[in-house]
């Protein structure tokens, strides 16, 4: 249905509220499209500029007004999130974001509140930027992949230079202005074997308390693998448009079991020292699952479809990971956001996460926590040959089995009215008894196969 246009040029809210409209949903808006001032080797989103040849890649002010109006209108609840991503969103400059805040404040209904978020590489942030972010209580997701050598392995600028020093300067400025910051750390071939080093760097050296770890899985076909291994920069000759095709992965991609071990090793450090002090998104989601609560992370939910992506020109896509032609829902200049979010195409996309799960997964003992993870990673086959197994399956099985006992303990503590951090004292008593008298060069009693000094000696 096409709605009557309003003063900002976009369609009005439909007279009849769509029956399949979700109670809440999240949109990652990309005001600069795929354009970025960096050339991170693993960033396949750089190739998405091929969707819009010759475009300026800048969200127009009338479209900004249309988007924010529709976003506020589409949320009937008390809170709306205005989330910016890229490419690199700060390329649009501070005036664009000042205007976005001004418009949003004008549009909010009585009793409605807003949460502003922005994901950034940080290299363009200065005192003026950070003062603005602090004034309007932005939550900033800052991309850091660990200490210098690990970060600079793939996070480089257009000249191939590492960006670590510039990002650290940005973080110092953000902290000086007391901006809320989450670390966004991608996990890949360069840092997958340095889990505790990465975690302690964030916790001890940077003083960060909110961490998100994101596995890098770059799919490829036999025809695209060679060029994909070179990276996704516009300077790469013959660069293809990245789509969710192929059963191969690039040499930068995290290993399946390595991903699970990465999470498990950090968990062992966290659960003994940092519960209630450091918050790791995957651990919070896992605890929710052990409590029987729907986890906040869409990848672990049974169905999806309520986390969408808006391009700079108003095109809406089913998901940030599916910005490709077949998953384009329409354009908000033509159809209201709430109608696109509740369209049959999007409803089917969300239900497919559950309905296409292989039988092997449906009978898995950790399905309650995993639910097949993100559909973008379901491109391998099950042991009995059924398509649709997640590439990271081995890793997730390792992680969820590894954390089962501590998660049960924390869940029981919470059900008793106690606090989750109490698990640290319980585990300390168990560890003291379990590891008493074990020599440093003996096999660790935990069954990891490693020497005690390289495993639980610190515990």
Note down, in words, how this protein is organized.
By secondary structure, the chain is of the alpha/beta class. The chain has helices at 61-74, 94-107, 127-135, 148-151, 164-176, 195-205, 225-228, 256-273, 281-290, 337-341, 344-355, 359-362, 367-370, 393-415, 423-434, and strands spanning 26-29, 79-84, 113-120, 139-143, 180-187, 210-215, 219-220, 248-249, 279-280, 307-310, 315-317, 328-331, 378-381, 387-390. A ten-stranded mixed sheet has the order 9-6-5-4-3-2-1-10-11-12. Strands 7-8 form a two-stranded antiparallel sheet. Helix 1 runs parallel beside helix 2, helix 8 packs parallel to helix 14 and helix 9 crosses helix 14 (393-415). The longest helix has 23 residues, at 393-415. The termini are far apart.
What sort of overall outline do the alpha carbons produce when their principal axes are compared? globular
Radius of gyration: 23 Å
Low-confidence segments, given as residue ranges, are none
Tell me the major beta sheet.
10 strands, mixed
Count of alpha and pi helical runs: 15
Percent of residues in helices comes to 25-40%
Distance between the termini: 61 Å
Order of helices and strands: EHEHEHEHHEHEEHEHEHEEEHHHHEEHH
By secondary-structure content and strand pairing, the structural class works out as alpha/beta
Order of strands in the sheet with most strands: 9-6-5-4-3-2-1-10-11-12
């Amino acid at each position: 249905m096409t709605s009557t246009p309003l003063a900002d040029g976009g369609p009005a809210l439909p007279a009849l509220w769509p029956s399949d409209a979700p109670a809440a949903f999240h949109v990652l808006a990309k005001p600069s499209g795929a354009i970025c001032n960096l050339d991170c080797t693993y960033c396949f989103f750089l190739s998405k500029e091929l969707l819009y040849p010759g475009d300026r890649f800048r969200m127009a002010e009338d479209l900004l007004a249309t988007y924010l109006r529709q976003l506020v209108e589409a949320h009937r609840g008390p809170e709306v999130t205005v989330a910016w991503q890229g490419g690199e969103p700060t390329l649009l400059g501070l005036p664009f974001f000042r205007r976005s805040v001004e418009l949003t404040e004008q549009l909010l209904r009585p009793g409605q509140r807003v949460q502003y978020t922005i994901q950034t590489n940080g290299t363009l942030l200065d005192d003026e930027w950070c003062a603005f972010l602090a004034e309007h209580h932005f939550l900033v997701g800052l991309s850091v992949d660990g200490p210098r050598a690990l970060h600079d392995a793939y996070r480089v600028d257009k000249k191939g230079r590492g960006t670590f020093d510039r990002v650290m300067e940005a973080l110092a400025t953000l902290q000086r202005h007391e901006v809320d910051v989450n670390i966004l750390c991608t996990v890949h071939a360069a840092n997958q074997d340095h889990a505790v080093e990465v975690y302690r760097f964030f916790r001890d050296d940077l003083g960060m308390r909110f961490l998100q770890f994101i596995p890098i899985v770059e799919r490829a076909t036999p025809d695209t693998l060679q060029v994909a291994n070179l990276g996704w920069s516009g300077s790469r000759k013959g660069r293809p448009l990245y789509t969710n095709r192929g059963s191969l992965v690039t040499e930068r991609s995290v290993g399946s079991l390595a991903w699970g071990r990465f999470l498990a090793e950090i968990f062992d450090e966290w659960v003994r020292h940092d519960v209630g002090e450091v918050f790791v998104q995957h651990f919070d989601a896992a605890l929710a699952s052990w409590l029987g609560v729907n986890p906040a992370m869409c990848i672990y939910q049974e169905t999806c479809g309520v986390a969408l992506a808006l391009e700079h020109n108003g095109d809406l896509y089913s998901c940030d990971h599916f910005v490709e032609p077949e998953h384009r829902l329409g354009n908000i200049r033509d159809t209201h956001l709430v109608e696109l979010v509740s369209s049959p195409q999007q409803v089917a996309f969300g239900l497919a996460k559950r309905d296409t799960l292989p039988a092997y997964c449906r009978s898995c003992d950790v399905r309650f926590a995993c639910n097949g993870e993100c559909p973008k990673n379901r491109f391998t086959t099950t042991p009995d040959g059924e398509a649709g197994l997640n590439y990271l399956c081995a890793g997730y099985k390792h992680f969820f089995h590894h954390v089962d006992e501590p998660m049960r303990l924390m869940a029981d503590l919470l059900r008793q009215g106690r606090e989750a951090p109490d698990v640290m004292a319980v585990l300390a008593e168990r560890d003291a008894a379990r590891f008493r008298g074990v020599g440093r060069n003996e096999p660790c009693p935990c069954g990891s196969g490693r020497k005690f000094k390289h495993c639980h000696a610190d515990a």
